Amino acid sequence: MPVGIFRVCLVVITAIVNHPLLFPKENGTVPENAEEIIQKMKEREESLRLEKLRLEQEIAHQEAMQKTLEKAAEVVEESKEEKVRWDMWTALSMVIFLLIELWRQDFQEGIWQDTGGEEDDMAVLGKAFKGVAFPDKAVLASFYEKRILGTTGDMARMREMVEGFADDLLEALRSVCNRDADMEVEDCMGVGSMYENWRVRKPFVCDLIVPFAPPEPYCFRSQTWCSGDSFPPDEQGYGTIKVCRADEDVTGCICDKTKLGEDMLCLLHSQANTTRPSSEMEDLLCFKNTQYLDADQVMKWFQIAVTKAWNRISHKYEFDLSFSLLDSPGALKIKFRSGKSIAFNLTPVVQYENSDVYFISHFPRSGLAADLPSSTHWFLTFAVYERRFIQLVSKMLPANACHVSCLQILSFLHGKQCSLTGPSGLTNYHLKTVMLHLLQARPSQDWAPEKLEARLQDMLKFLEKCLHEKKLYHFFIGNRRVPAELGFPIIFQRAEPLNLFRPFVLHRDVYRKTVDTFHEMLRNMSALINEYTVHIPLAHTNGIHKESL
């Protein structure tokens, strides 16, 4: 029985397994489906191959474009580097050309040809002093006492006499002038070496400046080279003076600076105020058809006024008065019946704003200085501040300080040398400027009287350095260390320094003559001083040296 049941179950299971609905014959359609799949695979393979070719072409194109861009960038970079190299070569060539041009100017034919074997005059600082026998303290002291110190009393008497006469002359000048039309003349002031007590060479000449102002309702409005507008180098140190009505605002309106059209009017100034008859401005000593004060017209007016004033008071004096120099309109000379004479300069000036800086009509200049750009350009003088600075510093120096003595000795030596070999480009004003710079640079104790020899050497070496560099700056212009006690105008302290030796750059022959004269003075210094020195025994000299040690 169990065996039969097992057999029945086996038959049923076998039937179920072999039933076609449960396990169909898969290999019955294999040949047809395989061909279709193979065809699709071939098509897919072809499309992939085409896509691969397309991608390879794109990649190759991009690589070519990248290489092209890189080459272009390299070309641009190379061009930039080449341009930079070209610019550098251009700049270097210009620098070399300028250096060659400067060398050519310094050593051009006919100027710097010296005899062979002479040492270069443009040597380094101090070389010119090699082999120079410098006078010792005893010789300098004797020279100063005999030749220079005795002139102080003569200067004081002459100043007193000239000032008294000048005051009387100006008072008479005011009386002969028309107060409603002529310039108003103020009191005179003494400036320069005679009033700073360092003039040594005769004839003594007093320098007096006379400020003047226009009649009412006019006033002066000045403009300097450092007031903001650009001035060419040859006009530095100068300024212009405009004659205006007191109620005229020249700074707030541009009608005087810009040409308005014929159909345009200034709403601030009427035509009557802006246009004045030419004769009226000429009566105010202006340049023709302008409002600018003419220095030549001022000197002509001043000479005529002085002549009239002298005619009025000449009966009071037992001497004659005349103009002594044609090229210096303010130069006057008093001639006594005994044959003696006294010379002095009386020069009209215009005050700069409310300061003691003055525009001077004619300034004593050396032969190397260029002429004024025009007669409407006025030179500025700082002589009043220079005198005040020396007085201020002298109060802080030791008793009997040697600063004035150094300047007097140097001025005497240079003047004596010029009388032997002819004039040079150096002036006494240059020598005073050297002293002013050293007064500010060195401490006060260095100017003790026993240090006269050392300070004189300092001045000579400083002057040699300035000549070597062709640079000697004006003491006040561009100097921001000017003592506040002087009340010096700030506009000039902030200005660019003014080189007093600039004419040497333009006048090579004068520069060469000046350098030769300076070095000749150094070589002749002992002889020039010994000529005016009392003989000092050797023992006395040695004793002085031992005391100083």
Automatic annotation (TrEMBL):
<keyword id="KW-1133">Transmembrane helix</keyword>
<comment type="function">
    <text>Enhances Ca(2+)-mediated inhibition of inositol 1,4,5-triphosphate receptor (ITPR) Ca(2+) release.</text>
</comment>
<keyword id="KW-0812">Transmembrane</keyword>
<keyword id="KW-0472">Membrane</keyword>
<keyword id="KW-0325">Glycoprotein</keyword>
<protein>
    <recommendedName>
        <fullName>Inositol 1,4,5-trisphosphate receptor-interacting protein</fullName>
    </recommendedName>
</protein>
<feature type="coiled-coil region">
    <location>
        <begin position="38"/>
        <end position="82"/>
    </location>
</feature>
<dbReference type="InterPro" id="IPR026250">
    <property type="entry name" value="ITPRIP-like"/>
</dbReference>
<dbReference type="GO" id="GO:0005886">
    <property type="term" value="C:plasma membrane"/>
</dbReference>
<keyword id="KW-1003">Cell membrane</keyword>
<dbReference type="GO" id="GO:0005640">
    <property type="term" value="C:nuclear outer membrane"/>
</dbReference>
<comment type="similarity">
    <text>Belongs to the ITPRIP family.</text>
</comment>
<dbReference type="InterPro" id="IPR046906">
    <property type="entry name" value="Mab-21_HhH/H2TH-like"/>
</dbReference>
<keyword id="KW-0539">Nucleus</keyword>
<dbReference type="Pfam" id="PF20266">
    <property type="entry name" value="Mab-21_C"/>
</dbReference>
<feature type="signal peptide">
    <location>
        <begin position="1"/>
        <end position="15"/>
    </location>
</feature>
<keyword id="KW-0732">Signal</keyword>
<feature type="domain" description="Mab-21-like HhH/H2TH-like">
    <location>
        <begin position="404"/>
        <end position="477"/>
    </location>
</feature>
<keyword id="KW-0175">Coiled coil</keyword>
<dbReference type="GO" id="GO:0004860">
    <property type="term" value="F:protein kinase inhibitor activity"/>
</dbReference>
<dbReference type="InterPro" id="IPR024810">
    <property type="entry name" value="MAB21L/cGLR"/>
</dbReference>
